Amino acid sequence: MLEDGTRFDGAGTGRPGSRTGEVVFTTGMVGYPESLTDPSYRGQILVFTYPLLGNYGVPDPAARDPYGLPRFLESDEIQVRGAAFRGMPAPSHWNSSRTLPRWMDDGGIPGIVGIDTRRLTEHLRTNGVVRGILEVREGDSSRPASEELSEKLRRAPRYEEERFVEEVSVSEPVLIRSDGGPLIAVPDCGVKASILRALLKRKLSILRLPHDHEIPERWDGRPIGGLLVGNGPGDPAQLGAAVAALRAARSRNLPTLGICLGNQLLALSRGATTFKMKYGHRGQNKTVCFTDGRALIASENHGYAVEPASLAATGLRPWAVNPDDGTIEGLRDARGRTIALQGHPEGHPGPQETGFVFDLFAGKVRRSVA
Question: What domains can be seen in the chain, in order of their start residue?
């Protein structure tokens, strides 16, 4: 049930329980294992618009790549608070280790199946993102009264009041070596595993830092050659310590790449402001129009954006915009030493045609340490 009283009754799946959170929708047709484990969805109830989910099951959550990162997922656990589905067929796939309902049950996540997700999506698309409550009761328990659900929702904290980044960041620095390549500092606000793999693929070593950790000049005897600020959940304006660390490191003129939340944090560190979007962008087919005339498709997952009017004195300028609503999709400084993209150049799930952003960044890093 949404906070405006709109209610949907269906069949429960996953783990019985009651969860509150911001209700958002994603338009992706595939990639539900990656979406459900994306830390940017922390604290949210995710509605899938595609009507058949779970049809290829869930890959082994314990599988790791050579660097110890989750091989098929974006983090070590399901990050959403709940999920809503239209239909959930039996899976058939060579790489499936379990069903989607079993995986959600293992992770303690409730879900609802059989509701009109198109009606729910249209409601959110008209009225904007709202809070909601998802309650799954065991067996033949009576359905909860709307008044009872409303009271639980009223007592729950609002999305912007919670500090999700502290729940998804590493607690201490982690060094990941890649063939002795240049060392990149990555303040971890909930960075996806596939973003880290994109750096490692380009022979960049990674120093993964807690979100509020100062950015060191050297680590393990090696200089920090660049800075990547990735994705994460929640309101960027809450992350004062992370913004302060980025501001302190600015004088070192490190090649810097921001992705998703990182785009917003870099803007805040320069004195810009952000705002909460009415709908947000969540899906795998978002158009990004670059200032050089290219129009590319990117995967996106964000509910906040940079205020264009606040960029005047920051030294940053728009690098890309969204043609649908005019929001900023990318930033860069005059020299291109700092670049940022609101979408996800790594894809996973989604297209990877903006992956050239990683190549640009890697090239700048190598030239700076040569």
Answer: 11-161 (3.50.30.20), 165-369 (3.40.50.880)
